[in-house]
Amino acid sequence: MSANGRGENAHPRWPGIDIAGSLVLPVPRDAFPDVIAPVMAHGLELLPKPEFHLTLLNRRLAARAQRTPAPGGHAIDHLRVAFDALDWRWRATGERWLLRERRDGRVRHSVIALVTLPALDAFRSRAAEVLGIEVAPAPAHVTLYTAGAPRGIGIDSHAAFARLQLAPIALQPRAPA
């Protein structure tokens, strides 16, 4: 992968389920070289995420894939085959959005960068087939900054994205204290 919002590795290694239970494609920090310090947006101080990734399946779907039987093993085994067959190159669109979510009495914010990643829809479609459930298409994105939720805000569909949008954003570095 290279700097400036591009993933050039068409066939990365299967990432497996991460420590939080999601299936994510790691994104190197240098893919977004401008994300180095806290920023201010809409009166909020947003902190850079310590790691970047593209979420392929959230915790709920990844757990279901691990426990759902499928011919020759479990659904997760079929998803690994699908992953290996797809082209995972991506490119940032240049669009960044400030998101807001109220959950469990707390307000959380994230700034995401939208990316083009055609493999994501194909992968989620295959997940729907092997799991036998609806898996909605979701916007491909990388969470860059957060406030109130260090991991970010889950976006599992385009409808969720529309509901969480606060504003398109151009970020300014935080002024020194």
Number of strands: 12
The total count of helices amounts to 4
- Indicate the proportion of strand residues: 35-45%
Taking pLDDT < 50 over at least 5 consecutive residues as the criterion, the unreliable ranges are: none
- The radius of gyration computed from the alpha-carbon positions, rounded to a whole number of angstroms, is 17 Å
Secondary-structure element string: EEEEEHEEHEEHEHEE
Task: Give the end-to-end Cα distance, rounded to a whole number of Å.
Answer: 35 Å
Q: What structural class do the secondary elements suggest?
A: alpha+beta
- Tally of individual domains: 1
**Overall geometric form:** globular
What is the average of the pLDDT values? 93
Q: How many strands, what sense, and barrel or not for the largest sheet? A: 8 strands, antiparallel
Helix content: 10-25%
Summarize the structure.
The chain has 177 residues and is of the alpha+beta class. It has helices at 59-67, 75-85, 118-131, 158-164, and strands at residues 6-7, 23-27, 39-41, 44-48, 52-57, 69-70, 73-74, 90-103, 106-116, 141-147, 165-168, 172-173. The protein has one domain (6-173).
